[in-house]
Structure formats: C-alpha cells, structure tokens
Amino acid sequence: MSNRSLSLLVEENSPLQQQPDEYEYGIDATEATSSEFLLPDDNNSNNNDDDDTTMILDLTLFFLSGLGSSMGYISSLSSLVHFQQVFGNNFFVLLNVAIYLPLVPISIAQATWDQQYDRYFATLRAFVFRTIIGYGLVITGTIGLIFTMISGGGGGGGTKSHKPTHYSMVAVVISACLQGVGGAILYGQLNQLASFVTKNGYHATTNLQGTFQETFLEQDSDTTLPRKCKAAVSAGVQASALAVLVLSWTSGFETMNEERFPSFLWMVVVAVFICFLAMLWLLIGRPRVRASMIQRDSSMQLSITSRQVSFQRQISSPPTTTFDNITMNNDITDSEDPIRQPLLLLSTVQQEEFVSEQCRASNELQPSSNEATMATTSTSLFPSQTTVPIGLSVSLSQSTDLSECYHPATEELSFEELLRYSRPSCLVMAMTLIPSFLVGSWFTRVRTNRMELPQILFYVRIGMDFLGRLATILPWVVDTAEPSPYRDGTDDDVPTNGNDDDDNNINNDMSWVVRTTLARWLVVILFFVNSRFDFVKTEGYRDLITITLVAFIAFLSGFLVTTCYQMAPQQLPIMMRTTNAAKQASILTVAFALSALGGLLLSFLLIALGV
C-alpha cells in the first residue's frame, strides 16, 4: 500500500450522522475534554460519600420503576377471589394467559429490533419513548377495567345487582391484556437498562491513544452495580403485590368488597403514575444512567465503525494471493493504479450486509496478531482528543494495519452467538418458571374449605418471590457469579458451533443453579399431590402444608430467575459486554416469556385431563 491515508466518511444520510455536536444528553462533544466527565473524583472522600448516596437513589428509582411496571396487572391478579365469585374457578387461568401471553411477542420484538432503534434514535430517546408507551398502556388497561366493572361486570360502584355477561368477561380480559402488554414493554426495557448501567459511568471521552481497552476492562469488570440494579428491578416487580395489598386494605376493597373495587383501582392508577414519574427521573435526571447510555451509544458506534474500516479494507486492498500475484512484475504505483483506489462506500445497510458475510473470511486470510486490541483501534480511529460522538469522520494513517482494525471483541454478536452464551441461563429459567406459573395459576383449584386461601397463597407466593430476589445480592451469591478469567475478549472467545472447553466452562459456572432447579421440582410435585389427594385429613394442617410448599417454591423461583439475569452477562467476553448486554437481556426475557406461557398452557392441559 502507498503512504497516503485512507479517509472513511459516514454518509450524510446515515442515521449515525444525524446526531448534533451537542449531544442530546446535554454534553457538548466539542468541549468534553475531561476523561471523567459527569463523575466524582475517586480520590475525594466526600465525593465517594456522595456517590454512595446517589447509588442508593438510583437503586430506589430502579425499584420504583419495576414496581410500576407490574402494579397494573398485579392488581388484577390479586383480585382472584372477586373474579372467582363473578366468573368461576377457571377464569383465573384465563386471566393469567391474557396478562402473560403478550410478553412472548413483545420480548421477541425487543430482542430483534430494540438495539437497532436505540442505535438510530440514541438510547435515551428510545427508552423515554418506550416508557411513555408502556406506562400509558398500563394506566389505560386499569382504567378500562374500572369502567368495565362499573358498567356491568359483576359489581362495583353500587351496581351489585348487575350480572356478569360474556361481554363483561371479554372486556375484563382485554383490559388485563393491555396491562400485560404495557408491563411486558417496561419489564424488558428495565432489564436492558440494568444490564449496561455502570458504577463509574463513561470515561472514554478523550485521550483515546491506547486507553480505550483499559477503560472498557475497568468498567465491565465491575459487575456489582448491574447485579444490584437487576435485583432492584426484580424486587420491585414482585413488591408491587405488597403495595397492591396495602392499597386494597386502604381503599376498603380488601379481597371481595365489590362496591370498593373501583376506588381500589383508582388508587392503583395514581400509584402507577407516580412510578412513571420516577422512571422518567431515572432516565433523564440521573447522571450515572445518562452517562451509561452515552457509553452504550458509543460502544455500538465503535462496533459499526470497526465494521466500516474492515469493509474499506475489503474493497481497497484485495488479498495478496489474488491481486499481488498478478501485478508482481508491474511497476505501477498505488496512486496510478485505479484498481487500488478506495471505492466509494456503499450505504450503511449495504456495508453491514457485506461485512457480515465477508469480514470473518477476510480475517482468516489476513489473521490479526494477538496484540490487535481495542487500543490499536482507538489509536487509528481517533488520533486526537475527542469524544466518541455518533457520526464520525475517521482518518487512518499510513501506519495503520487495517487488518487489525476489526477485532471480534468490538462486534455486535448475532442471536445465535448470544443464545449459545446464554443457553444455560435460558435452560434454568425454563425449568424454574414453567412449574412456577403452573403452581401460581392453580391456587383457585386447591382443595380447601377456606374461601380466602387462594388470596393467601397469592400473597405468600409474591412475598417469598420478593425475598428470593433480594437474596441474590448476598455476598456468597456474588462470589459464585464472578466472571470467568478465560473470558478476556480475545479471538478464542468468539462462539463456535463445535463442542469445546468453553462450553464446559459455561455449564460448570451454572452447575449449582441447575442442581437447585432440579431439586425444586420435587417440591412442586408434592404441592400437586397435597392439593389433589387427602393424605392429611385435618383441613387446617393441609392448608398449612400447602402454604409452606408455595412459600418454598416461590422463594427459589425469585432467587433462580434473578440469578440467571445476573450471571448471564458474565458468560460474555469482557470487551463484548457493553455492546451486547442489553440484547442478551432481551433474549433472556424471551426465555422468560416462553417459559411463563409454557406453564400456563400446561395448566390448561391438566384441567382438560381432569386433574
């Protein structure tokens, strides 16, 4: 190659070029010269105290956001005794399906398109938009349920003489479905957000000469805050039942007072709106979250830029075996040979399609050395002090080895590759949630003479699930989930289709979780045996055994599901986590949704079999 420089310009009509100089988070890309903007000085003890305080506030906002995401549909599920009296025993299973079924298509859509839209519109804008849509659907569904019950859905607001109709049943199911759709949107988004929030925010803003890799390693190796954020979200999702219980007693609805049902739901609407404001504050007003969004946007941009550099290498420098052999005896210089001139770049979409097929093959022809790291990339891509705004003009010097500019550690993994890394967590989630939802939808069919027992079982399940999620932040649990030392982001960490030692390491990391999940199935079997057969003749003792079994099942359910969300990112190479953490969280949410649906469908099967 000649000594001239290659210039890589992103097209003006590319969505990546549409970001203004003043970044939408309020940070001027031209003035951000500190390597730790939006961050306290780690050497200042007062700032450290302030950082601890702000961390508690951030976790509280995560908790409230999770609380509001599920409070709408939990208010419907917690009214199971009321709906049982109005619509019959089997309606509770139908209500569960109406609420949790939308989670399947929503989670699949989030895993497929969310990251693309986040890259196009920027993370902050996309997250705020989805927050408004999600909470809007939750509030709309709850208000729709109020008017349905008032207008003739089996009581409420002094209309106790109204009889339930087929129309009212359908209207209740539709309202619950809206609550489920909104909750699914918010649940998936909160898990994405918790997966990439970092303790120290975004450091990589200036002096990118050889420091980019160290920055990512420093941030991604600290997994304490993401684990706490995920635990806070999970705890909030379950704690909404406790908040609903308080509201039901405060409103006078309690468990089955039909006349107070609308008042109870209106209080739920107010509480959900307060949680909506808390989530907006988390997204817009918290510096750590905003800085983490900038880090994620820049990481996604770096991945695209690396692909563009590799694409430029593909079209401007053919392999030696195909071109140089032809021109070996030719004295034409690079500047005189039009074939060696860099071609105009195709559109961003065309580049990505080309690179996805050709880049890996080219790396095999011109393998990069083990020293090809993100530091090399950052030195060549960003030679001067600058931030990493979305939309770049990249100048490559003559000393740049373009074969090293694209490194697997910077890439956005495909669904197949992410699924391979996430496979143990998805399997554990399925083995945990299928029996959980099967048991949870069976409360109204447990043999008992106490009408309030289903309500008691519901709140026992929610409360113990909540405690199980909080237990995941215990020190011994954190120690078992530390990242494996072999996942350092090198080429050897890129997923393969074969069975290698890496597969065994992944499975070994999750082995204790798998064993616990399998042992829990024995308790699930005991629950159904106890609820179906009269081995214990005394009614009170049998109910006590049922409550104990439900408490044990629910505690392990919350513990195991949250552990899966926390441990899954540790299976990714360190350098790949920032770019792929949110996408992996969406894949886990898909597994969550499919498992929940599987448990509910199994309930219908058992009912059809007459169990």
UniProtKB/TrEMBL annotation:
Organism the protein comes from: Nitzschia inconspicua
Annotated keywords: Membrane, Transmembrane, Transmembrane helix, Transport
Domain of life of the organism encoding this protein: Eukaryota
Subcellular location field: Membrane
A Gene Ontology cellular-component term: plasma membrane
PANTHER family per record: EQUILIBRATIVE NUCLEOSIDE TRANSPORTER (PTHR10332), EQUILIBRATIVE NUCLEOSIDE TRANSPORTER 4 (PTHR10332:SF10)
Topology in membrane: Multi-pass membrane protein
GO molecular function annotation: nucleoside transmembrane transporter activity
TM helices/strands, residue ranges: 55-74, 86-106, 127-147, 167-187, 231-252, 264-284, 512-529, 544-565, 586-609
InterPro entries linked to this entry: Eqnu_transpt
Protein name: Nucleoside transporter
Similarity comment: family membership: Belongs to the SLC29A/ENT transporter (TC 2.A.57) family.
Positions of region (Disordered): 1-23
